[in-house]
Specification:
By secondary structure, the chain is mainly α. It has 19 helices and five strands.
């Protein structure tokens, strides 16, 4: 380790000397004001006035990379930003942006990190790669790095849904990163404002069922595809364990002196709401005792939860405490009534279709008879 330290310090000094002229220029605010948005002008100006050329600019890149490897993420981020304003090497500029994203993530600067993530996404989507496989790999890496940001940024739950559901990135998940469905599913479940994406999510989960599944995707499949409430109840218990032990989902927080897992609590709350809503669509009179079992709650907690849900969600339902049941309003048809309503018009449509086919057949046959 002593020999290694000597080697590292020697390398650091060598890179400092190589990049020193440019670093001195960049640390002078008055000189930095001479730079313009035109990179060619900047290169010519630096060369003519300060004898700073491409060699010193590339030395700054190596110096910033070495600072990152030494754990100086703040310095690396600053140097990489300055390097990108000067360099004309597109590959190094692309790598520098990756490095800056990593530095911001490691410093937990989530607002800046999400800006760099967006910038990197735009470049990946517009850059001409040597092969489509390289572009697929870049998108896959981007989605994995984005997990650090989206599960820490205040607007991350919307961000992950927007990114992962976009066509190109959803294709990347289905081709190269099926395990990311866990995080997309969790974000969709806990985000009440994006319930409209649930149908699309179920479709993707069904398509990838034979390639990837975990308790979270299986819970949604049990509930919305198979209508298996017992299976959903069992999977919900497994979901709790999965979330607590997942690096991104199981983030802990201190609340009133107690350690909690906020995402787990939100997921369970919304999952129970999904079970309740789906069950209510099929049944008009529901036994609270049976429902409490399906929600993994005791009877009293389930009754209080249903009362609060009816009050806050303004559901047309009432609780019959004597019978221990929840009675849903009659103006909301159950699934069976919906099927009857939707099939009422089948007879008329079939008659119209048959008439049109017959009319077309007659029109074709008449000239032949003549």
């Amino acid at each position: 380790m002593v020999d290694r330290r000597v080697e590292v310090v020697g390398r650091l000094k060598l890179l400092e000397e190589s990049a020193a002229p440019l670093i001195s220029f960049l640390q002078n605010p008055a000189l930095v004001q001479e730079l313009r948005t035109d990179k060619q002008y900047n290169l010519q100006m630096l060369h003519d006035r300060y004898q700073i050329g491409t060699e010193q600019i590339e030395a700054l890149y190596e110096y910033a990379k070495f600072q990152f490897e030494c754990g100086n993420y703040s310095g690396a981020s600053d140097f990489l930003y300055q390097y990108r304003t000067l360099c004309t090497n597109s590959d190094h500029s692309f790598s520098a942006l990756w490095g800056k994203l990593a530095a911001e993530v490691l410093m937990q600067n989530w607002d800046v990190a999400i800006e760099e993530l967006t910038r990197l996404k735009d470049i990946i989507d517009s850059k001409n790669f040597a092969s489509p496989l390289n572009q697929l790999q870049q998108r896959t890496w981007l989605m994995h790095w984005s997990l650090f940001i989206f599960f820490n940024h205040e607007n991350g739950r919307n961000g992950i849904i927007d990114l992962f559901f976009s066509e190109r990135y959803l294709n990347a998940i289905q081709t190269n990163a099926h395990h990311l469905l866990r995080y997309l599913a969790t974000a969709t479940v806990v985000n009440k404002r994006r319930r409209n994406m649930l149908k699309e999510l179920i479709k993707v989960i069904q398509q990838e069922h034979y390639t990837y599944s975990d308790p979270i995707t299986e819970f949604l499949e049990c509930l919305y595809v198979n209508y298996d409430f017992e299976g959903a109840q069992e999977k919900l218990r497994e979901c709790e364990e999965v979330i607590v032990n997942d690096f991104f989902l199981g983030k802990q927080a201190q609340e009133n002196g107690f350690v909690t897992v906020p995402l787990r609590d939100e997921f369970l709350e919304n999952a129970r709401l999904f079970i309740f809503e789906t069950y209510c669509r099929i049944h008009q009179c529901i036994d609270i005792g049976m429902l409490s079992e399906k929600l993994n709650m005791n009877y009293d907690d389930a009754e209080r939860w249903i009362v609060n849900l009816i009050r806050t969600a303004r559901l047309d339902a009432k609780i019959d405490t004597k019978m221990g049941t929840v009675v849903m309003g009659t103006q909301h048809p159950n699934v069976y009534e919906q099927i009857i309503d939707k099939t009422k018009q089948l007879g008329v449509r079939s008659y119209t279709l048959a008439s049109n086919v017959a009319a077309t057949a007659v029109a074709v046959d008449v000239p032949a008879i003549r």
